Amino acid sequence: MEREEEEAKTEETQAAPAADGVPVQVVYCEVCSLPTEYCEYGPTPQACLAKAVGGVDIDAPPQEEVKILPGGKKKVVIKETPKVIIKKTQRNKRKFVTSIIGLESFNIKLQDAAKAFGKKFACGSSVVRGQAGVPDEIDVQGDVEYDIVDFITEKWPQIEEDMIEFVEDKKKSAQ
Description:
Layout: H1 2-14, H2 45-53, E1 63-68, E2 74-79, E3 84-90, E4 96-101, H3 110-121, E5 125-128, E6 137-141, H4 147-155, E7 164-171
Parallel strand pairs: 3-7
Antiparallel strand pairs: 1-2, 3-4, 4-6, 5-6
């Protein structure tokens, strides 16, 4: 009985009343899940602004397609918009490896792309085959994270700059 009373008290204190005694309603952003007044300090301020203004939704939900299987069963197939992920991983103190994931969704042969990256940046480049459930990626030796965006959009015009996403890892795990 006492525990229920304590829980009720803590629930009352969590909703801080405003000056007039009415609890404040906090509106959260759908993109970054922060309160809307803190979106500019969040991880994706441009996406939050685009959503708030009503412009193009950067993180649009994937398109759904319904397939009818034999026997009358329906299967929902989700089509995601393809994107390229560029990941920079620190190997040693001053050595980096830049990984490019997602080029195969644009019908680009990874072996040819790895060869082009190696020639363009004068470095080692290789295709790393992913295990079950992990996509294949191209590893480029060196910190070419920002130069590679211009090269990708120039070499393959079907990939636009807004389809490229950056991810940064701290250290590559020893395997």
